[in-house]
């Protein structure tokens, strides 16, 4: 089932392993941002890797943001995810022209670049943000998230992600997996995992064959060698409504809203993560100005009541 993530543990309790099919969410993200073929692959890989990493490192109401800045022609790749399976993201150059390697395949590493860093920010209610960072090793995204987990989280891990495109530049499939060593894992078990990963069927072929998340993990560990702990849906985060954007505009000074009216007779807001556009006409902006002025008047009145009468006035006999 597309847009589904499973959490498992190997029966020898040496590893925990997650896998997901995010075909629909990647397809929807590509359509929303009108991404080119290679930009769809880049954005899709980042969304998958961010979802997997978030499931492995945050919980409850925590959120995680990732920024891949490789100084390649794709520009920055920015994603956000929560612990409940919602994710969103964008590429700063969504119309990037295809970049190919010597074999004529899309070269994601060259497009993203590897002269930069992967920055992860974890946000928790009532706590200071946690910032982690690691150097990019390839720009292929999966490798870079793997390196981050090893360097910043100090957890032996591996992440694999792939996005397969069809001949019409549409997303045909998008899957990924994450494997992490558990306390007590032995060197022999780690070595065996390395061998298993080298011998596994390529993810791109598994996408073509329609493999499920469980089948992806069984291809690595063997049939019947993982125990499913949880199955959960994943998907694109909901886009704020026009009403929510109006509330955001109402936090600006009234003179800034007036400038929008004077110069453009309105305002257009484009969601970076969704690509959706919301237009506010002159009448709607005037209503927002009235809300701001009413709020300011109420605050001034409340402050006057709090301060009380002028203490410097002489008392009457």
Write a structural description.
The protein has 317 residues and is α+β, with helices and mostly antiparallel strands. The chain has ten helices and 13 strands. Strand 12 (266-270) and strand 13 form a beta hairpin. Helix 1 packs across helix 2 and helix 9 packs antiparallel against helix 10. The chain has a six-stranded mixed sheet with strand order 7-6-3-4-5-11, with helices on one face. Strands 8-9-2-1-10 form a five-stranded antiparallel sheet, with helices on both faces. Strands 12-13 form a two-stranded antiparallel sheet. 35% of the residues are buried. The longest helix is centred in the C-terminal third of the chain and has 26 residues, at 282-307. The mean pLDDT is 91.
Shape call: globular
Q: Uncertain spans, ≥5 residues at pLDDT below 50?
A: none
Q: Main β-sheet, in a few words? A: 6 strands, mixed
Mean pLDDT: 91
SSE topology string: EEHHEEEHEEHEEHHHEEHHEEH
Task: Tell me how many strands there are.
Answer: 13
Classify the secondary structure makeup into a structural class. Answer: alpha+beta
Radius of gyration, CA atoms, in whole angstroms:
25 Å
Q: Record the strand order, biggest sheet.
A: 7-6-3-4-5-11
Number of helices: 10
Instruction: Classify the beta-strand content into a percent band.
Output: 25-35%
Helix content: 25-40%
Euclidean distance between termini CA atoms: 85 Å
Quick take:
Helix content is 38%, strand content 27%.
Task: Provide key terms for this protein.
single chain; 317 residues; alpha+beta; six-stranded mixed sheet; five-stranded antiparallel sheet; 13 strands; globular
């Amino acid at each position: 089932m597309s847009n589904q993530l499973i959490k498992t543990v190997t029966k020898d309790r040496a590893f925990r392993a997650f896998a997901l099919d995010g075909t629909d969410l990647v397809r929807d993200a590509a359509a929303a941002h009108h991404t080119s073929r290679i930009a769809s692959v880049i954005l899709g890989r980042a969304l998958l890797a961010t979802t997997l990493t978030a499931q492995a490192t945050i919980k409850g109401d925590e959120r995680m943001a990732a920024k891949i800045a490789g100084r390649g022609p794709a520009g920055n790749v920015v994603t956000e995810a929560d612990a409940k399976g919602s994710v969103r993201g964008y590429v700063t150059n969504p119309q990037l022209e295809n970049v190919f390697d010597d074999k004529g395949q899309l070269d994601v590493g060259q497009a993203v670049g590897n002269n930069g860093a992967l920055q992860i920010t974890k946000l928790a209610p009532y706590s200071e943000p946690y910032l982690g960072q690691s150097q990019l090793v390839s720009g292929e995204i999966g490798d870079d998230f793997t390196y981050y987990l090893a360097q910043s989280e100090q957890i032996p891990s591996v992440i694999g992600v792939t996005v397969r495109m069809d001949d019409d530049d549409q997303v045909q499939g998008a899957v990924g997996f994450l494997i992490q060593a558990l306390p007590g894992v032995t060197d022999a078990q780690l070595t065996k995992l390395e061998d298993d990963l080298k011998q596994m069927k390529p993810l791109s072929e598994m996408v073509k064959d329609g493999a499920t998340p469980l089948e992806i993990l069984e291809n690595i560990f063997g049939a019947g060698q993982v125990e499913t702990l949880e199955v959960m849906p994943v998907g694109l985060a909901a886009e704020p409504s026009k009403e929510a954007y109006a509330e955001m505009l109402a936090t600006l000074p009234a003179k800034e809203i007036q400038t929008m009216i004077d110069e453009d007779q309105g305002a257009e807001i484009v969601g970076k993560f969704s690509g959706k556009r919301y237009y506010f006409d002159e009448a709607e902006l005037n209503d927002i100005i009235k809300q701001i002025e009413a709020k300011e008047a109420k605050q001034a009145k409340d402050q006057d009541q709090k301060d009380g009468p002028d203490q410097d006035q002489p008392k009457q006999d």
